[in-house]
Design a protein that fits this description.
The protein has three helices and two strands. The protein has 95 residues and is α+β, with helices and mostly antiparallel strands. It has a two-stranded parallel sheet. The longest helix is centred in the last third of the chain and has 18 residues. The N and C termini lie far apart (37 Å).
Length: 95
């Protein structure tokens, strides 16, 4: 956190951490995260907050996958990216 925002007195400002913002009325959201991602808990919290605010949110957690796993040349990354593509196509086609 220090590398991103430096010394700030309140890290719960929405510009620093969107999970603390007003999340009502947002478009459909797909969260893709690895089970071994250091930000897994943040993604779980964001999914819960988005859902509680009445948004359409889908959370996909991929097993044994680190942060940024979709950038790796693995079968699981290809599967996750194909899922993102399908999710986007479905939304863009009115699904």
């Amino acid at each position: 956190m220090q590398a991103y925002v430096g010394q700030v007195p309140d890290r719960t400002v929405a510009d620093i951490s969107p999970v603390y913002g007003d999340l009502r009325g947002l478009p459909p959201t797909l969260l893709v995260v690895g089970a071994d991602d250091v930000l897994l808990e943040d993604n779980l919290a964001m999914a819960g907050r988005l859902s509680a605010a009445g948004n359409d949110v889908e959370l996909r957690v991929y097993p044994e996958s680190p942060h940024g796993f979709t950038g790796h040349p693995t079968a699981l990354a290809r599967t996750a990216l194909a899922g993102v593509d399908a999710w986007l196509r479905d939304r863009l086609n009115g699904g």
